[in-house]
Amino acid sequence: MLLAQCVDRAGTGMWAAASVLYFTFVSRLDARELGLLLGVGAVAGIAGSPLAGRAAERFTVRGLLIGSHLLRLGTMGLLLVADDFATLLPVVALTCLGERAAKTLEMLFATRVAGEQRTTYQALFRSVANAGYALGAGIAAIGLGVGTTNAYRALILANALSFILAAALVWRTREPVGHGLVVAQSGDGGTTDEPPHAASPWRDRGYLLFVLLDIPMNLDDSVLNVGLPLWLVHHTSAPHAVVPAFLVVNTVLVVVLQLRVSARVQGRRGAAVAVGWYGMALPACSLVLATATGGGAWSASLAMLAAAILVTLAELIRSVSSWELAVSLAPPRARASYLGVAGMSQSVQKSLGPLLLTGAVMTAGPAGWLALGAAVTGLSLVQRRASLRRLETLYAPSRAVSAVGGRISQGRSQWRREPS
User: Fold this and answer.
1) Residue among 383, 390, 413, 240 nearest 321 (CA)
2) Which residue in 27, 156, 266, 407 is deepest, having the highest Cβ count within 10 Å?
3) CB of 139 within 8 A of CB of 16?
4) How far apart are the C-alpha atoms of 77 and 84, rounded to whole Å?
5) Would you say 139 and 158 are in contact if contact means Cβ atoms under 8 Å apart?
6) Do 16 and 247 form a contact (C-beta atoms < 8 A)?
7) How far apart are CA 35 and CA 33, in angstroms?
8) Are the C-beta atoms of residues 63 and 164 closer than 8 Å to each other?
9) What is the rounded CA–CA span in Å between residue 269 and residue 211?
10) What is the mean pLDDT of residues 158-163?
11) Partners of 191 in the beta sheet?
12) Which residues neighbour 300 within 8 Å (Cβ) at sequence distance 6 or greater?
């Protein structure tokens, strides 16, 4: 499964690096059409997570994941023949929906198979995924360097090939059998720490609050990919050649440090506490960005690289804590639908995060970054407290029952030892 994810991310990295230029120079879309196309795709991606979660309660995750890869294989093929905006719109929407569904299903698979080791699996996945993205971006650079229409189409075909290989690798995996498709099983075959069952995540206010607060806890993605490059170009004296270094720094640090960071975030309470660390790392990045406007090229470059390191640290924390809490705060026998809803937070952030940064934060200048940092700190504290409170509510009853059961067993043993 990890190899399949690496292959998938390599193809995604190729397409991500080439898509905007392909739509501009090959499909001949103007800026307005391109913005609408990407916006509709992002909205379709939001629906992918809950749909995948809902379907995972009825079908095997393995089969659904293969279906998601094949769906994207078909849409990539349609891109080769679609030549107008009206045709491209549904094709791109289905591609984004399939991509988001696939990412959710991959994590559902990990939740089922890895069980209590899901934090370690998530760390391995992050390292493998970043290596795949880097490989894909490197291959895309070759095609973009050639710059011909056939070179762009070759990148699309390479992305389609990645879906075929990923689907074949997933087909070779084995998923545990039994009822409860994404319920992590304990050693004795029962579910671990089973809290009360909720009928639907859409009626669970406590869980919806977690998902809502998790949206700003994913802002590191937009800061890295949108905020840092635009801030460097328009508000600092750092050379534009520093921009590619952001991705290099991010990729290297994730591959090297993700397992080490994950080792420090163990269990449900550890994930909740780590949210507070996120509330320090991202605001620290915002503070550095706010002070990077002064000075010469060298000082501005060093400040921007420091900001890239800090936002990567925030990403390392978030990638572990967010999913662990999404799993722990959900009833085990309804995890598929719950985790599908939780996956929406990343998709919503990808849609609204860039707008927030470009329309409000950077427009306000350094004060905008300071305000963003303060807001993230406050929201992280709210998320941490709300998560700990929900964990206590969900799991305290099981501990109380275990304690009562222990006292009853002890009393029975003492009764048996009494002489007649």
Assistant:
1) 383
2) 156
3) no
4) 15
5) yes
6) no
7) 5
8) no
9) 17
10) 94
11) 185
12) 232, 236, 237, 238, 292, 293
Distance of CA 76 to the CA centre of its chain: 23
Q: Do residues 292 and 300 make contact, with C-beta atoms less than 8 angstroms apart?
A: yes
Beta bridge partners of 185: 191
As a dihedral over the C-alpha atoms of residue 99, residue 100, residue 103, residue 107, rounded to 10 degrees, the angle is: -160
Structure tokens that stand for 134 in this block: 């880097």
Residue 10, CB half-sphere, CA atoms under 13 Å: how many? 21
What is the torsional sign of CA 241, 243, 244, 248? positive
C-alpha–C-alpha distance, residues 391 and 381, integer Å: 15
Q: Is the pLDDT of residue 328 over 80?
A: yes
Q: Closest Cα to residue 16, out of 99, 74, 88?
A: 99
Q: Which of 10-14, 39-43, 390-394 has the highest mean pLDDT?
A: 10-14
pLDDT at site 177: 56
Can you read off the two tokens belonging to residue 28?
Answer: 């001949």
Residue 309 near residue 247, CB atoms below 8 Å: no
